Amino acid sequence: MTRSSSSAPFAFARFARAILLVAVAFVAGCGGIERGPPAPRELSDQITVLGTPNARFWPDTQGAALAREALESVERERRAAGLPPGSNQRLPPAYFLAVSGGGDNGAFGAGLLCGWEDRGTMPSFKLVTGISTGAMIAPFAFLGQPYHNALCTMYTTIKPSDIHKPRGFFGALFSDALSDTSPLAGLVRRYMTEQALADIAREYRKGRLLLIGTTNLDVQRPIIWNIGAIAASGKPGALALVRKILLASSAIPGAFPPVMIDVEAGGQHYQEMNVDGGAVAQTFLYPPDLGLRINPRARKNARERHAYIIRNGRLSPDWAATERQFLPIVARAIATMIHYSGYNDVLRIYAITKRDGVDYNLAYIEPDFATAKHEEFDPAYLRALFEYGRTKGRQGYRWHKAPPVLELKDQALNPNGARPNAGRLTVLSCRRCGSSD
How many CB atoms neighbour CB 146 within 10 A? Predict the structure, then answer.
């Protein structure tokens, strides 16, 4: 067995080829595919979808609106718990889950969650966020046990033909991507059903939040989609919109086609180009300014908070000899940027949780997984990685209490090798039995 490589070199080798194709198309004077007009820059903050004002947020400018949504979710949670309005009674612990991108490495996160559910100790999450492959996993994690088997099935049975159909050189030259993702769209339709949407709406009304990240290429900004609010809106087109959002969050630019989403602003109709949320960040828990707008330590907001971050990838560098040729160099450079973007995400989330008094727990693919991958969405690799994650979850995963670079520093200060503040996944109270492991 050899050490597996990251999914990034595979995906971004294709991305590098896409760059070359775009350059060729530009020189040849090829026109793009027709699309609806994007909203003018001055109307960006007025954009709505399905007439639902809290369906989406710009995290860089709409922090106040996000804070209101968070506070309103707590009030819904209090009502669901039967607490009177304005009650200062402390709410039970809140559990947050952030699932990263990572392409087919999402099999790790899916396996870990399935193993955790098998063990019977996975909590009901107050907040679930997802980007890219994490966006595909997030609804299952949000809905919990009834959707457990669907998550396990999806990541152990998919193959390349279930994700995309290559267009070939000339097909890509005159289109918007190297691949056609109609198979992936079919997979999304199979699992994101009317019933799933109704279940998400029900949980939203109880005060739970499901957030998915995409990137708007027109304005070079991230979007946070409030899936629960869309589901609970009851608007025609809500299911189709949620399916588009999930597909958009996984749309690797150049490799997969962008997803066009119809929006409104200033009384006019426009069309946004949405792609993989990983173009901005591979993982997010909540925007950094949220903890400054809502004081989590204030008495009225006081409660235990536990964050679980699943990084669908490695956090150690992946050694490989790079050929001295254009495409390998570009692909390797992009893969390196993506690797450290993911690392910086877990560092950023760590800093935010420490500031806000949130318990931090991190999982990632560790050096003890050594199965090689021979192609993207290699079925043998997916099954092996899924079982690796599932075994970890069933046994009680030892969550990392800090990113590796900080954990190494702590270990240097603790020569006996004990992980400072390390806790098993099961030290929290069991949702089903009400006891601790």
Answer: 11
